[in-house]
Amino acid sequence: MIDAVIIDHAFILAGILFCLGLAGVLVRRNLVFVLISLEVMLNAAGLAFIAAGSAWGQPEGQIMFLAVVTLGAAEVAVGLGLTLLLFRRFNSVDIDQLNQLKG
Amino acid sequence: MNLLWLIPTLPFLGFTILVLSSGRMSRERARIVGVGSVALAFLATIYIATQYYAAAAHGLDHGAGFTVSLWPWITAGSLNLNFSLYLDGLSLSMLFVITGVGALIHLYASGYMWDDPDYTRFFTYMNLFVAAMLMLVLADNLVLMFLGWEGVGLCSFLLIGFWYKDPKNGYAARKAFVVTRAGDTAFAIGLFLLFRELGSLEIQEILHLAPENFEMGGNMPTLISALLLGGAVGKSAQIPLQTWLPDAMAGPTPVSALIHAATMVTAGVYLIARCHPVFLLSPIAMTMVASIGLITLLVAGFTALNQWDIKRVLAYSTMSQIGYMFLALGVEAWDSSIFHLMTHAIFKALLFLTAGSIILAMHHEQDIRKMGGLRKQLPVPFWCFLIGSACLIALPPTSGFWSKEPILLAAWEADPIFWYGAVFGAFLTAVYTTRLMLLVFFGTPEGGIPKTHEPKGWQLHPPLIILAGLSLVAGLFNLPAADVLPHAHEHHPPLWVEITGILLPVVGIFIGWQVFLKGRWQALRMESPAFDGLRKFLASGWGFDWLYDILLVKPFMALAKANRNDIVDLVPKAVVVASSQCYYFFSRGQNGQLRFYVATMAAAAIMIISLALFT
Amino acid sequence: MTAAFIYSLMFYFTAAIAVLATLLMITRHNAVHALLYLIISSLSMAIIFYLLGAPFAAVLEVIIYAGAVMILFVFVVMMLNLGHKSVEQEAAWLPAKGWIVPSVLAALLLIVLIAGLGEPENLRGVHLVGVKEVGISLFGPYLLVVELASFLLMAGLVGAYHLARQTTPTPKFDDSGTSTSKTQGDEA
User: Fold this and answer.
1) Using omega within 30 degrees of 0 as the cis cutoff, is the peptide bond preceding B240 cis?
2) Nearest to C105 among B599, B610, B613 (CB)
C-alpha cells in the first residue's frame, strides 16, 4: 500500500474528465463527436469506480468497470449504427436536424 | 285552520300543472286548470273565514291571529326562519280581495284571451302571480313576504311583456322590473336593519319588540320606516318610483286589472299597514307617507286629464287612488285605507275589465278620440262602466263613497293641507272620469260612431255584472281587518268640511259634462298652442320619465358603453392569459434539440447535487 | 526520491496528459485527429488504472477501449467520409459563442462535484487488487455480471447489425431531386 493522498485526486481527475466530456456533448453538432465525448464521460465514470475500488482494496471496483466498459461498447455499436442511418436518411450527421419531436 | 296552506298552494299547483304541460294542453283544459285553481282558492278562503269567525266568536283576542308553521326554512347563525303562514283580519281581507277578484278576473281572461296563441302561458303566469301574492299576504316573517314580493315582481315582468315579440312591450316590462327593483333594494336594506336592531324577522315579534327597543322619533325607526316606505313606493307606483305603471299598460287588459289595479300595487299599502307599529314610532315617516300619497294623487290626477289612451287614464287613476290609501295610512286612518283598498280593487277591476270589453269590441283600438256614442251598441259595458265610475268619483251610496269619505275626514283631522289636497284630488277625479265616460259612450266623434262587434265568449259579461253588484254593496260590509289595526280617532270635523267633500265631486261632474259634452268653456280645455308645453308636461306624468332618463338612464348607458370590454372581466381573463403565457413559455422548452435536453439534464444534475450537498 | 514521490509524479503527469488529450479532442475539427487524441486519452487512463493498483482494468481499457471501440469509430468515420473533407463544416459548426454555455455548465458541475468530495477520510492509500482476486470474484459472487454483460453485448450486436443493414433502396435526401441510391443488394 502506498500512502500518498492520491485517491481524492483521482476522483478530481474523474470529475474533470467527466465535465470535459459533458462540454463536448453539449457543444458539438456532429453525432460522431457526440458519441466520442460520451465515451470520455464513461471513461471518467470508470476511473471513479477503479479509484474507489483501490481505496477500499476490493475487486468490486474493477468489476463495475467491466460492466461500464461493456455498456460503453454496446452503446457505441448501436449509436454508430444509428449514425449510419442518420447519414443515409439526411445525408448529414447534424443532430440538430433531428428535431421532429418538437412542440 | 290547518288547511290554511291550501290557499297559496292551489294556484301554485295550477301553475305547476300548466308549466309541466308545456303547451300540449288544450285550451279548454288550460282554462279549467287556470281558472279553477283560483276559484278553488276562493272557496278555501271562504272556508277559512268561517273558521276564523267561529274562533272569533269564541272569544279570540282582538287582533290576534293564527300561525301555521309549515316547515323550518332558513337556519343560519342566529337567524331562524320557518315557512309559516299567519292569518288575522288584515290578511283575511287581503285574501278575499286576491282570490275573489282574482277568480273573477281569471274567468274574464279565459274569454278575453281565447284567440291568443299563448293561452296556456298566460294562465301559467297568472297562477304563479296569484300564488306569489297570496304568499306575500300570508307570510309570517318578512323574508317570506319578500319572497312573495319578488315573485309578484317577476310575474309582473312576465305578464307585461307577454307579447314579447314587440320590443316596446319588452321595454315596458324591463322598466317595470328595474324601477320596482330600486324599491326592493330599499326594502331589503330595511330588512337587514330590522334584523340587526331587533334580532328577528318574524312580523309579530318585530311588532312587539319595536316599541320596546326604539324610542319615539328616534333615528333608527325613521330610517327603517323610510326604507320600508321605499319598497312600498316602488311596488305601489307612487312618486318617485311611479314611472313604470303607465307603461305597464302594454300588457293584456286582464293583467292590468289583476296586477296593476287590484293586487300587486296594493302590496305596498299592505306592507305599511302590517308594519304600522314601526311606522308609528316615527312621526317623520308618517308625514312622509302622507305627503307622498298627497303629491302622487295630485300629480296623477292632473296627468289623467290629458291622456288619450283609455288604459292609461285608468292607470293614472289607479296611481291616484293608491295615493289616497297612502294618505290615509299617513294620517293614521288605517282601517279606512284598507277598506279603500278593497273597494278600489273591486271597482278598478270592474273598470279595467269593462275597458277590455270595449277594446275588444273596437277591434283592439284604445284611443278614446276614436270612440264615442258607444252606449247603444255596448249596453252591459256601459252600465258597468257607469257604476264603476260612480264608485271612483265616490258618489253616495256606492262603496267608493263609504271608503273615501273617512279618508277625507281623517285628513282634515291631521292637517288641513292634506284635506285641501285630497278634496281637490277628488274634484280632479270627477273631472277626468266624466271626461272618459263621455268621450267613450256619449257624443259623436269625427267620422261617425264606430262600428263595434260584440265579442264572443260567455265569460266576458258575468264577471262584470258580479263586480258591479259588489261595488255597489261593498260599502255595507264590516271590515274583518278592523280589529287588527288601531282604531282611528273619532272624527268631528266642521259640517262645511263634510258637505264640501260630498259636493265637490258633483261640481266636477257638472264641469266635465259641460266641457266635454256640451262643448262650453272650451278655453278650459287649454288646447290652444300656447298651452302646448304645459299639456305635454302634464301628459307625460310631469316629466318624470325625462328626468330619470337624463339623471339615471343616460349615464348608466354611457357607463355600460365605456365598459364594453368589461373591466371586471379582466380578473378571470388575467388567469387565462397567465396560464397560456406559462404554456407558451414551457412549450418552447420542447424544441426537439438533443443538445438542449442534455444541457437541461446537466443543469438539473447541478441543482440536485448542490441541493443535496448544501442543505 | 522516494518511491512515493516518483509515484505521485507519474500519477500527476499522466493525469495531465489525459486532461490535455481530452481537451484537445473535443476541440478538433478533423474527426480522425479527435479519435487519435481519444486513443491517447484512453492509454493514459490505462496507465492511471495501473498506478491505482488495477492492472486488470488497465489491460481491459487498452484492449477494449483503445482497441475495439476506437476501431469502430474509425470505420464509421471512414464510411461517412468525415476526414479532412468535412473540416470546414465542423469549423462552421463550432462558433466561439457556442462554447460559453457548455463551459459554464461544465464548470458548475465540476465545482459541485468537487465540493461534494468533502474531507478526505481515513482510507486514502492505494491498494493493489490483482487479477487473481478479480477473477475469483468474477467467477464467484459476481457471475451474473458476466452473464448480463454477455446479454448486453448480444443485444448490442443484433441491434447494430439490424440498424446498419441495407435491404431496400433508401432514397437520399438531396436537393438535386435525383435519387442516387447506392445500396447493396438492391434490385432494379
Assistant:
1) yes
2) B599
| Grid cell digits, residue C101 | 454555455
What is chain C's length? 188
Residue A65 forms part of a structural domain: yes
The chain-wide mean pLDDT, for chain B, equals 85
Count of CB atoms situated within 10 Å of the CB of B240: 17
- Number of Cβ within 10 Å of residue C25's Cβ equals 25
Binned at pLDDT 50, 70 and 90, residue C185 comes out as: very low
Residue with cell 282558492: B41
Please give, one letter per residue, the 3-state secondary structure of B79-105. EEEEEEEEECHHHHHHHHHHHHHHHHH
Q: Are C124 and A8 in contact (CB under 8 A)?
A: yes
pLDDT in tens, C148-160: 999 999 999 999 8
CA distance C177 to C188: 18
Which residues are bridge partners to B85 per DSSP? B68, B139
Half-sphere exposure of B457 (CA within 13 A, CB side): 21
C-alpha B134/C-alpha A95 separation (Å) is: 82
- Note whether residue A58 is domain-resident: yes
With 0.80 as the threshold, say if the pTM is over it: no
Contact B448/B370 with Cβ under 8 angstroms?
no
Q: Which of B348, B354, B290, B363 is nearest to B315 (CA)?
A: B348
What is the chain A residue with the closest CA to B585?
A103
The CA distance from B485 to B334, in Å, is 6
- CATH number assigned to the domain comprising residue A15: 1.10.287.3510
Average pLDDT over residues B99-122: 89
> What are the residue boundaries of the structural domains of chain B, listed by start?
282-525, 527-564, 566-614
In sequence order, the β-bridge partners of residue B202 are B141
User: To which residue does cell 433508401 refer?
Assistant: C170
Question: Does B588 reach chain A within 8 Å, measured CB to CB?
Answer: no
In the predicted structure, residue B529 carries a pLDDT above the cut 90: no
Question: Cβ contacts (< 8 Å) between B593 and chain A: which residues?
Answer: 95-96, 99, 102
- Tell me, yes or no, whether A71 lies in a domain: yes
Tens of pLDDT, residue by residue over C109-160, are 999 988 888 776 655 678 888 899 999 999 999 999 999 999 999 999 999 8
- What are the residues of chain B with a beta carbon less than 8 Å away from any beta carbon of chain C? 599, 602-603, 605-606, 609-610, 613
Please tell me the distance from the alpha carbon of residue B315 to that of residue B321, in angstroms, as a whole number: 10
Cβ distance B580 to B587 under 8 Å?
A: no
Is residue A23 within 8 Å of C106, Cβ to Cβ?
Answer: yes
Rounded Cα gap, residues B155 and B177, in angstroms: 10
Q: Which residues contact A98 (CB under 8 A, 6 or more apart)?
A: A86, B592, B594
Q: What 3-state DSSP class applies to A94?
A: strand
Q: Does A100 touch chain C (CB under 8 A)?
A: no
Q: Is residue A95 part of a domain?
A: no
Our count of domains for chain A comes to: 1
Q: Which one, of C137, C27, C34, C127, lies nearest residue C76 by Cα? A: C34
Which domain range does residue A39 map to? 7-89
How far apart are alpha carbons A63 and C134 in whole angstroms?
A: 7
